Amino acid sequence: MAGQGSRVLLDGLWTRAQLAGNPSDHVVTRPYSKPADLTLPARLVPVSGQAEVPADLRGVIRRVHVPAGAKVLALTFDLCERASNRTGYRTEIVNFLRGKGVAATFFAGGKWMRSHPEQTMQLMADPLFELGNHSWTHANLALTDEFETRDQVLWTQAQYELLREELARRARERGLGAEMAAVPASMSVFRLPYGRNSPETLERLAAMGLPVIQWDVLGEGGTGTARDMALRAAGEVRPGSIVLMHANAVPRHTHEIVPFFVDELLRRGWRFVTVSALLAMGRAETVQDGYFERPGDNRQFDTGYPGKGSLHPVPGSDSGKVPK
Ligand SMILES: [Zn+2]
Fold it and tell me: How many CB atoms lie within 10 A of CB 98?
């Protein structure tokens, strides 16, 4: 289970200062401030395949029914990045979780992984954390066709493999090759960008072996101070909850919310596990749409998409909207 593994790989390949990161890590470039990056990944088809998703994990998973009274939840962070920008990384969130020994799952875009290779490999090497797939360029999978959906998902699986191979190369150089046994060969969970999907999308993701993991608690929602938001979210957590947050600078205050949220739940006796560990503890509660709070509440993300949806909103059409 996450949290009980060895930090040998992490501490053997990076110094404390490197893991601590820099204030500039979270800098976000504005969409369309530079030409969109539509270049393909260096590998288009992953080497490792996944078995089809079993029947009990099909649909959109919002939480897991764990044994009554089990104070266990999964904290998840999305690392969203579209073709049109670079979104950075909130190192202080990751450092806080490491300091507390708190497990989490990070749903990373494939293009984000490519533009943040060191951070991706650090997450991979850390036994506390799990990486999941968040599509190549934050595609709206309610709008993509069969082929575009497949590219968005498999390019991201392939990018993970490329960085895992680089991590393995560095590990071997330091005599730490055996530690790679603890790093999964591929990602085994998926999160829908914007929470958007269609019935066909769910079938395609199931065929590619990726259970769809959304949430039952919005960890960054509401108004007030960071502490207010954290305590409200902490009050909504139930046994087996999945909590949505972001670890790049998309919602700007997450790094302030996380310490209040985690400390409050630890104080109340809750335990944090990765999504995969949570899925192994009980029965998944599934729905058919990846909404935020109510079915249909994310349909506004269907407007402004040219073509089939793997590109990004045209300039001016998405001002003020926050990608999830
Ligand atoms: Zn996202």
Answer: 18
Domains of the chain: 58-302 (3.20.20.370)
Round to whole Å and give the CA distance between 25 and 282. 37
Using one digit for the tens of pLDDT, what is the confidence trace for 52-78?
999 999 999 999 999 988 999 999 999
**H-state helical runs in the chain:** 8-13, 16-20, 91-100, 110-115, 117-125, 146-173, 199-207, 226-236, 254-267, 275-279
Number of Cβ within a 10 Å radius of residue 111: 27
- CA–centroid distance, residue 322 to ligand 1 (Å): 9
The two counts, helices (H) then strands (E), for the chain are 10, 9
List, for residues 196-236, the tens digit of each pLDDT value.
Answer: 999 999 999 999 999 999 999 999 988 899 999 999 999 99
Query: Ligand 1 center to residue 261 CA distance, Å?
Result: 21
* Beta-carbon count within 10 A of 200 CB: 14
pTM of whole model > 0.70? yes
The DSSP code sequence of 203-265 is HHHHHTT--EE--SEETT-SSS-HHHHHHHHHHH--TTBEEEEESSSSSTTHHHHHHHHHHHH
* Ligand 1 center to 138 CA (angstroms): 6
